[in-house]
Amino acid sequence: MTSLLDTPLVRPGIGQGLKDVFHRRYLLKLLVRKEIKLRYRGSVLGVIWSYVKPAIQFVVFYIAMGVFLGLNRNVGNYAVYLFSGIVLINFFTEALNNAAKSIVYNSGLIKKIFLPRELFPVASVFVSAAHFFPQLVVLLIGCLLTGWQPTPLGVLAGFAGFLVLAMLSVGLGLFFSSVNVYFRDSENFVEMMLMVATWVSPVMYQWTMVHERLGDFWFAVYQANPVTVGVELFHYAFWSTTSGGDAALAAPPQLFELWLPVALVVSAAVLALGQFTFRRLEVKFAQEL
């Protein structure tokens, strides 16, 4: 029998980062359930709000960009093109916005007990994913009604686009949730950054318009943004094989050979930076909160 003297001492409050989230998956599941119940508590429409917001956003963007600016005449099946981008960018904006506030919003729980603090931003991303999948079902229905022909490469592209933005959301969520404990105005910075990301990414327009105006060098800088690559992958997956879609216009040259690996590397680097920053700052969370 091993005695207490043979047990190595472990410094209290020091964990293994995201590994602890995996080891305590049951706590993650409880947090996700709690967040979903709290979000719709006292709500008349409940989960239907997951459909109302993207629907209104789609109508506004379609009228503004499709009808007034004429993109629906220049882009075949513009409705599917627009909605496929909106679905993914909404997942990213909701996930990062909620993850950045997660530590401050759960300050009461953090000050009372110790548990892996990474659970809170990661749970926010999972809750956003739970809202993402019903919208994805609506997108799939729209694609099927417009002659969508799924291909193995297209399915892989859709999964890769979601994976890129999920990794980026967790990394940025870890970074800004920890910084937000010390500097509360970082929430405003995140909201401003998400507004820019929505308009800079090719959600409402095609990448060819960017290339024509920026040239090769600045277009390469533009393509290094993982959000841009994720949206283009979704367009390739869901719009390119529908009636009016065009695979050549959905994906810029070397999307899979170059830009997808670049997006994965950048997202992984952001994830590592977010984890490093979070672990350095979490030691004083309870005092600062």
Automatic annotation (TrEMBL):
<dbReference type="GO" id="GO:0043190">
    <property type="term" value="C:ATP-binding cassette (ABC) transporter complex"/>
</dbReference>
<dbReference type="GO" id="GO:0046677">
    <property type="term" value="P:response to antibiotic"/>
</dbReference>
<keyword id="KW-0472">Membrane</keyword>
<dbReference type="InterPro" id="IPR000412">
    <property type="entry name" value="ABC_2_transport"/>
</dbReference>
<keyword id="KW-1003">Cell membrane</keyword>
<feature type="transmembrane region" description="Helical">
    <location>
        <begin position="258"/>
        <end position="278"/>
    </location>
</feature>
<keyword id="KW-0812">Transmembrane</keyword>
<feature type="transmembrane region" description="Helical">
    <location>
        <begin position="188"/>
        <end position="205"/>
    </location>
</feature>
<dbReference type="InterPro" id="IPR013525">
    <property type="entry name" value="ABC2_TM"/>
</dbReference>
<feature type="transmembrane region" description="Helical">
    <location>
        <begin position="153"/>
        <end position="176"/>
    </location>
</feature>
<keyword id="KW-0997">Cell inner membrane</keyword>
<feature type="transmembrane region" description="Helical">
    <location>
        <begin position="78"/>
        <end position="99"/>
    </location>
</feature>
<dbReference type="InterPro" id="IPR047817">
    <property type="entry name" value="ABC2_TM_bact-type"/>
</dbReference>
<dbReference type="Pfam" id="PF01061">
    <property type="entry name" value="ABC2_membrane"/>
</dbReference>
<keyword id="KW-0046">Antibiotic resistance</keyword>
<keyword id="KW-1133">Transmembrane helix</keyword>
<protein>
    <recommendedName>
        <fullName>Transport permease protein</fullName>
    </recommendedName>
</protein>
<feature type="domain" description="ABC transmembrane type-2">
    <location>
        <begin position="45"/>
        <end position="281"/>
    </location>
</feature>
<dbReference type="GO" id="GO:0140359">
    <property type="term" value="F:ABC-type transporter activity"/>
</dbReference>
<feature type="transmembrane region" description="Helical">
    <location>
        <begin position="48"/>
        <end position="71"/>
    </location>
</feature>
<comment type="similarity">
    <text>Belongs to the ABC-2 integral membrane protein family.</text>
</comment>
<feature type="transmembrane region" description="Helical">
    <location>
        <begin position="119"/>
        <end position="141"/>
    </location>
</feature>
<dbReference type="GO" id="GO:0015920">
    <property type="term" value="P:lipopolysaccharide transport"/>
</dbReference>
<feature type="transmembrane region" description="Helical">
    <location>
        <begin position="217"/>
        <end position="238"/>
    </location>
</feature>
<keyword id="KW-0813">Transport</keyword>
